[in-house]
Amino acid sequence: MEFKNILVEQKDNIAVITINRPTKLNALNKSTIEELHEAFKNLDTNTKVKVIIITGSGEKAFVAGADISEFANYTVEKGQELARNGQKILFDFVQNLSTPVVAAVNGFALGGGLELAMAAHFRVASENAKMGLPEVSLGVIPGYGGTQRLPQLVGKGKAMELIMTAGMISAEDAKDWGLVNYVVEQEELLPFCKKIAGKIIRNSSVAIAAAIKSINANYNNAVNGFDVEIEQFGKSFGTHDFKEGTTAFLEKRKPNFE
Ligand code: COA
User: Fold this and answer.
1) Is residue 128 part of a domain?
2) Is 70 a catalytic residue?
3) Ranges of the chain with pLDDT below 50
């Protein structure tokens, strides 16, 4: 698939996906969502890629939401289909990826943009970033998992307030709320995310994938997270990485995970 709305770079085991519709503040239209699905899928199966960073192009926006011009005339059925398909191919897909995904929030992250950042495994923001779920100001509600992931990250009361007021919070407030892990200067955002990625790639990708599965199980009512942890913990003992990690420790050397 040829990408028209996103850029993908890959270097030193780290991939960077940049949503590239700056004149529309990187709003997520249908084809951008499809391209993102394809890019995440390909990078996840590429054994050279150990961390994926997702960001927006330009200095103004990460993503200013779903593309309003595309769904303004939708029916009830088409609205449901939009949310169901988007959740399946992008938002749940990213959350359940085996490869760690870090959102580098470089400006406005609104509506679907904040929902995409929240589907990533964790978030870092630049000082100018502003975050919110303004859907009720348009007469609609968040449809890409926002009503579920926001309370998971910041608690029910703050989520209720942010969604009901359709407001925006600053990067610093987002950090205080636990929505982002760090706030850094804009020019430091990607280097900082790559520095964290550098710490991740030293570890076992196989074990990290199992940890993601186990942590995500805490938010899935259909499974018991403790049981998933037991299963994933046990499976680790059968992996080459476990043998290498424990042997390296006992031999007082650094592990060499393939
Ligand atoms: N969908 C479609 N187009 C969007 C968009 C969105 N979610 N967000 C921004 N754009 C477009 C604007 O229509 C404009 O396009 P144009 O130049 O062809 O008119 C361009 O991006 C620049 O946006 P603009 O509104 O002029 O920038 P601003 O600096 O004045 O305001 C925002 C920035 C983010 C406050 C404002 O764009 C906004 O409120 N966007 C919508 C946010 C939203 O409600 N998202 C949830 C969607 S469910």
Assistant:
1) yes
2) no
3) none
Say how many CA atoms lie within 13 Å of 2 toward its Cβ: 1
Residue at 45: amino acid letter: T
42 domain residue, yes or no: yes
Chain centroid, CA 237 distance in Å: 29
Q: Within this chain, do residues 103 and 144 fall inside the same structural domain, yes or no?
A: yes
67 lines ligand 1 (CB under 6 A): yes
Give the pLDDT of residue 129: 98
**Domain holding 161: CATH number?**
3.90.226.10
Q: Which of 131, 167, 4, 138 is nearest to 67 (CA)?
A: 138
Q: How far apart are CA 216 and CA 187, in angstroms?
A: 31
Per-residue pLDDT, 103: 99
**Vertex 137: Cα angle to 131 and 141 (nearest 5):** 80
* DSSP-assigned states of every residue in 183-210: EE-GGGHHHHHHHHHHHHTTS-HHHHHH
pLDDT at 222: 95
Quick check: helix, strand or coil at residue 16?
strand
Token pair of 147, please? 């009503």
Which atom of ligand 1 sits closest to the CA of residue 142?
Answer: 48
Whether residue 35 has its Cβ less than 6 Å from ligand 1: no
Give 44's contacts (C-beta < 8 A, 6+ positions apart). 52, 97, 98, 99
- pTM as predicted: 0.98
- Domains identified in the chain, total number: 2
pLDDT at 1: 87
Selected catalytic residue, list 2, 135, 172, 185:
135
The whole domain housing 20 covers 6-201
- The predicted pLDDT at position 258 comes to 81
